[in-house]
Specification:
The protein is an all-beta fold. Helix content is 0%, strand content 50%. It is built from no helices and 10 strands. The strands form 2 sheets. It has a 6-stranded mixed beta sheet, with no helix packed on it. Strands 1-3-8-7 form a 4-stranded antiparallel beta sheet, with no helix packed on it. Strand 4 and strand 5 form a beta hairpin. It is globular and about 40 Å long. 30% of the residues are buried. The mean pLDDT is 97.
Length: 113
């Protein structure tokens, strides 16, 4: 079945960097539009970034210029490089293929000021 496992989260100070990893399985990874989402405490889950199979990328305005999404189809893996982190980036981060109803456990990112 479709599964996602996110990793790489942690606690950093404002201005720091983290690289998140998403491992997908149970579907043709290289053919899929992949997405990152996040959910901050007390808030609804929001879309962060999208990466199409051809390499096109799309970002939420709140992370544009700071976050970069990439993929390694040979490893069924997607990455989210997060630079210049801000306290408002604190959230649990999730990945999935576009249109999926499955969510992984997520990975916690905490940014302190």
């Amino acid at each position: 079945q479709v599964q996602f496992v996110e990793s790489g989260g942690g606690s950093v100070q404002s201005g720091g960097s983290l690289r998140l990893t998403c491992a997908g399985s149970g579907f043709p990874f290289s053919d899929e539009i992949m997405t990152w989402h996040r959910q901050a405490p007390g808030k609804a889950r929001e879309w962060v970034a999208t990466l199409a199979p051809g390499g096109a990328t799309f970002y939420n305005n709140s992370v544009k210029g700071r976050f970069t999404v990439s993929r390694d189809d040979g490893k069924n893996t997607m990455y989210l490089q997060m630079n210049s982190l801000k306290p408002e980036d604190t959230a649990v981060y999730y990945c999935q293929n576009y249109g999926s109803t499955t969510w992984g456990p997520g990975t916690q990112v905490t940014v302190s000021s």
